[in-house]
Design a protein that fits this description.
Blueprint (H helix, E strand, L loop, with lengths): L19 H31 L2 H29 L1 H25 L4 H18 L3
Helix pairs in contact: 1-2, 2-3, 2-4, 3-4
Length: 132
């Protein structure tokens, strides 16, 4: 008895720049990149207000170090759980972290240790977010 296969979906019928999924991803990626840059500027500015420019550099480096060391492990997590759930969880965690840091900055003048801790935790979450 011959078996026939159902026709499979072919390639995209239109250009990629008109695909709704591509446009949603591009909009989310651009807004995320803008938010990341605003975060780094705000973190540096708050660190300079609390200490010296050299100490602000240490706070920034404290955030970059876990990102650089743990990004490979973040790729493993993204492969294990899938990129979409990983990105959603990391985005939620980064949002909560940044809003908490903003509330602390508004409520009081935090020390460099608190800004460094925020930078390290953000770097940890970023190490999982970026590979996804």
């Amino acid at each position: 008895m011959p078996t026939t296969l159902a026709p499979t979906a072919g390639p995209l019928t239109g250009p990629a720049h008109r695909d709704a999924n591509v446009l949603r991803w591009l909009g989310a990626y651009v807004s995320s990149a803008i938010g990341d840059n605003v975060y780094y500027i705000a973190l540096s500015w708050a660190a300079v207000q609390s200490g010296t420019p050299a100490q602000a550099g240490l706070v920034t480096a404290a955030g970059a170090l876990p990102r650089a060391l743990l990004m490979l492990g973040g790729g493993v997590i993204a492969d294990r759980y899938g990129p979409r759930p990983t990105v959603l969880v990391c985005t939620a965690a980064r949002t909560v972290l940044v809003l908490t840091a903003a509330a602390l900055l508004l409520a009081a003048s935090p020390g460099l240790w608190l800004l460094g801790a925020v930078a390290v935790v953000f770097g940890l979450v970023d190490a999982v977010f970026l590979p996804a």
